[in-house]
Design brief:
The protein is of the alpha+beta class. The protein is built from one helix and four strands. The strands form two sheets. The protein has a two-stranded antiparallel sheet. A hairpin with a 2-residue loop joins strand 3 and strand 4. The protein is extended, with a radius of gyration of 17 Å.
Length: 68
Protein backbone atom coordinates (compact mmCIF):
# COMPACT_ATOMS: atom_id res chain seq x y z
CA UNK A 1 0.00 0.00 0.00
CA UNK A 2 1.21 3.49 -0.78
CA UNK A 3 0.16 7.05 -0.14
CA UNK A 4 -1.23 9.26 -2.91
CA UNK A 5 2.02 11.20 -3.21
CA UNK A 6 4.14 8.03 -3.52
CA UNK A 7 4.87 6.54 -6.94
CA UNK A 8 5.85 2.91 -6.49
CA UNK A 9 6.38 2.43 -10.24
CA UNK A 10 9.50 4.59 -10.06
CA UNK A 11 11.06 2.47 -7.31
CA UNK A 12 13.72 -0.12 -8.17
CA UNK A 13 13.10 -2.03 -4.94
CA UNK A 14 10.70 -1.86 -2.00
CA UNK A 15 11.27 -2.77 1.62
CA UNK A 16 8.36 -4.82 2.92
CA UNK A 17 8.03 -5.35 6.65
CA UNK A 18 5.72 -6.99 9.13
CA UNK A 19 3.68 -4.27 10.90
CA UNK A 20 3.60 -6.22 14.17
CA UNK A 21 7.18 -7.55 14.13
CA UNK A 22 8.97 -4.72 12.36
CA UNK A 23 12.33 -6.47 12.59
CA UNK A 24 11.04 -8.95 9.96
CA UNK A 25 11.61 -7.39 6.54
CA UNK A 26 12.34 -8.25 2.92
CA UNK A 27 13.56 -6.28 -0.09
CA UNK A 28 11.41 -6.89 -3.17
CA UNK A 29 13.03 -6.12 -6.54
CA UNK A 30 10.84 -7.62 -9.27
CA UNK A 31 7.30 -6.33 -8.71
CA UNK A 32 4.37 -4.72 -10.48
CA UNK A 33 2.01 -2.10 -9.12
CA UNK A 34 -1.75 -2.51 -9.34
CA UNK A 35 -4.41 0.05 -8.46
CA UNK A 36 -6.72 -1.49 -5.85
CA UNK A 37 -8.82 1.54 -4.89
CA UNK A 38 -12.25 1.79 -6.50
CA UNK A 39 -15.06 4.21 -5.75
CA UNK A 40 -18.14 2.27 -4.67
CA UNK A 41 -20.57 5.04 -3.76
CA UNK A 42 -20.27 8.66 -4.91
CA UNK A 43 -22.90 11.27 -4.00
CA UNK A 44 -25.31 8.50 -3.02
CA UNK A 45 -25.02 6.68 -6.35
CA UNK A 46 -23.62 3.14 -6.47
CA UNK A 47 -20.81 2.96 -9.04
CA UNK A 48 -19.38 -0.51 -8.35
CA UNK A 49 -20.84 -3.40 -10.30
CA UNK A 50 -20.31 -6.75 -8.60
CA UNK A 51 -18.88 -9.36 -10.96
CA UNK A 52 -20.88 -12.51 -11.59
CA UNK A 53 -19.58 -15.85 -10.36
CA UNK A 54 -18.72 -16.73 -13.96
CA UNK A 55 -16.61 -13.55 -14.28
CA UNK A 56 -14.85 -14.28 -10.98
CA UNK A 57 -14.16 -17.86 -12.00
CA UNK A 58 -12.89 -16.76 -15.42
CA UNK A 59 -10.46 -14.25 -13.94
CA UNK A 60 -8.90 -16.74 -11.48
CA UNK A 61 -6.04 -17.97 -13.75
CA UNK A 62 -5.10 -14.37 -14.63
CA UNK A 63 -5.05 -13.34 -10.98
CA UNK A 64 -2.93 -16.35 -10.05
CA UNK A 65 -0.46 -15.45 -12.84
CA UNK A 66 0.03 -12.07 -11.13
CA UNK A 67 1.40 -13.87 -8.06
CA UNK A 68 3.80 -16.17 -9.88
Amino acid sequence: MALDNENSQEEKRLKMFNPVHTYISKLVKNFSVKELHQNIVVNGSILYKEPTLKEIYGSSPKVMDDFC
